[in-house]
Backbone:
């Protein structure tokens, strides 16, 4: 009952100290008597005011007292938790299915490993898509499997916290010249038994936090895999554009050389054609190196090695969607669905219950009780003396009345309150920012696709016609080629940034970590060099 009253105190204290209310209650003296914990409020047991009680009431009280140990035993047994069949993976699977429509598995047997390997092999057998890359990462990333192992460890801790404490047994035998003395004791931690329901609730909240932490790690791996995929495919597409330009430039350079040998082209025009081809060759080598680096980053997040490294990727990014998401529900979805915000809420609830438990045990935090007996046997007469009794051990609060522990618990709780309030503000801001980047990235990519590139094609066609009619020289043709290549690469980067922004928007709504600001939204290195020319 004492722990139950204290739990009510913690609940009332928590309601009085929410972020939307004044925190004046924190300054109250911790030595003040908690509400509902006076002697007058405790129920009266047998022997108190029997004159005004009927025989039926006295009989009911006796039955309650007789049944109280059984009721207490049932409550303690109910507080004990058992291991789940999937070690808490149901929450992780639910989050992955609702947010990404993907499957997750904690590999804990050879059958699990073979099942995951079969799915991964099937996905790698064809050209990899973004969704397929995410699924491969969720099944094959060893760091994510380590997070699932941590979840199993957290479940073991939770079950251990909810189990009944083991009693301690001691046996002492002293043999003298006249007699033999045998002393036996069995002692149990009474305070641990009394606080077991409250500690079980706290342990269960901590385990739920661990489940959501594993789900957050799953979302983070999925987001990282999607980002790495889009960057790799974008680098491949840019390399393809430059490879095509390099092939055309090499052909034009060879033609210029032959014309120069016949005297039909002067050295200046020959040099322009040749330097253009050399510039494209250098930029192509740089882009291919970047594409290899991006591919290796994708390989690491997918957890691939050996023969799996020969997987295929498409040559171009996916096309832009026809519609974009609206902003009306972005912030609301983020507040309700962000996994890290849910973890913070559970942590606050656990601290509130822990604070109530600390208050309940502030004066007595060590209480052991048990049965003891002592047997003394006289060696000469064989007479035996058997004494029985009990033993109680408690810590006397002479110098520390629990104020330190209460103050520490109070400070930890208020720190969690403020951090939760800060996180709620940040979640809303991150959702707004991610949506703005998402929408602007879509507008930019759509602008290049629908306006810039059609106009650039018209300019290219007209330039070729005028060059064929000998109305412009090679310099104008090369300048147009440089501008066309730069616009094409910029359009590819714009589509890449849109798909990265889409991934970041999903991470801002459900969780999964922010993208690297240095890698997102940056133009490809060859663009400036191609556009500059000579």
Residues:
């Amino acid at each position: 009952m004492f722990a139950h009253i204290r739990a009510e105190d913690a609940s009332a204290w928590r309601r009085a100290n929410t972020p939307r209310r004044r925190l004046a209650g924190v300054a109250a003296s911790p030595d003040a008597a908690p509400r509902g914990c006076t002697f007058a409020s405790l129920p009266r047991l047998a022997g108190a005011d029997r004159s005004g009680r009927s025989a039926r009431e006295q009989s009911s009280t006796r039955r309650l007292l007789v049944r109280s140990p059984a009721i207490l035993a049932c409550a303690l047994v109910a507080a004990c938790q058992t291991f789940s069949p999937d070690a808490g993976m149901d929450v992780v699977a639910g989050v992955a299915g609702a947010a990404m429509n993907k499957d997750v598995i904690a590999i804990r047997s050879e059958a699990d490993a073979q099942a995951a390997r079969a799915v991964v092999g099937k996905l790698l057998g064809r050209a990899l898509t973004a969704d397929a890359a995410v699924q491969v990462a969720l099944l094959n990333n060893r760091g994510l499997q380590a997070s699932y192992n941590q979840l199993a460890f957290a479940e073991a801790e939770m079950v251990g916290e909810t189990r009944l404490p083991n009693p301690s047994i001691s046996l002492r035998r002293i043999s003298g010249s006249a007699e033999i003395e045998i002393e036996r004791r069995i002692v149990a931690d009474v305070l641990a038994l009394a606080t077991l329901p409250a500690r079980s609730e706290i342990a269960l909240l901590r385990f739920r936090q661990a489940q959501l932490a594993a789900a957050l790690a799953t979302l983070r791996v999925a987001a990282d895999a999607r980002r790495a995929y889009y960057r790799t495919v974008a680098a491949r597409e840019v390399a393809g554009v430059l490879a095509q330009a390099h092939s055309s430039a090499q052909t034009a350079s060879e033609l210029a050389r032959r014309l120069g040998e016949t005297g039909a082209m002067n050295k200046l025009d020959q040099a322009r054609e040749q330097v253009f081809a050399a510039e494209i060759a250098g930029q192509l080598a740089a882009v291919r190196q970047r594409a290899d680096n991006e591919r290796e980053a994708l390989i690491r997040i997918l957890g691939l090695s050996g023969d799996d490294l020969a997987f295929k990727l498409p040559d171009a990014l996916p096309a832009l969607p026809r519609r974009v998401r609206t902003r009306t529900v972005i912030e609301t979805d983020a507040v309700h669905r962000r996994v890290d915000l849910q973890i913070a809420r559970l942590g606050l609830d656990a601290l509130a219950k822990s604070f109530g438990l600390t208050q309940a045990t502030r004066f007595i935090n060590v209480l052991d009780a048990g049965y003891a007996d002592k047997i003394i046997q006289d060696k000469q007469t064989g007479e035996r003396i058997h004494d029985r009794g009990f033993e109680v051990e408690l810590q006397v609060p002479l110098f520390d009345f629990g104020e330190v522990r209460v103050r520490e618990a109070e400070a930890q709780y208020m720190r969690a309150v403020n951090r939760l309030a800060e996180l709620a503000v940040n979640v809303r801001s991150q959702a707004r920012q991610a949506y703005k980047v998402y929408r602007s990235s879509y507008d930019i990519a759509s602008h290049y696709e629908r306006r810039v590139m059609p106009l650039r094609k018209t300019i290219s066609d007209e330039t070729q016609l005028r060059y064929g009619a000998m109305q412009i020289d090679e310099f104008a043709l090369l300048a147009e080629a440089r501008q066309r290549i730069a616009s094409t690469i910029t359009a590819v980067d714009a589509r890449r940034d849109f798909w990265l922004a889409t991934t970041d928007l999903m991470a801002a709504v459900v969780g999964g970590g922010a993208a690297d600001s240095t890698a997102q939204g940056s133009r490809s290195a060859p663009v400036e060099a191609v556009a500059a020319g000579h």
Summary: The CA atoms of residues 64 and 71 lie 9 Å apart. The beta strands are 168-175, 179-189, 367-378, 384-394.
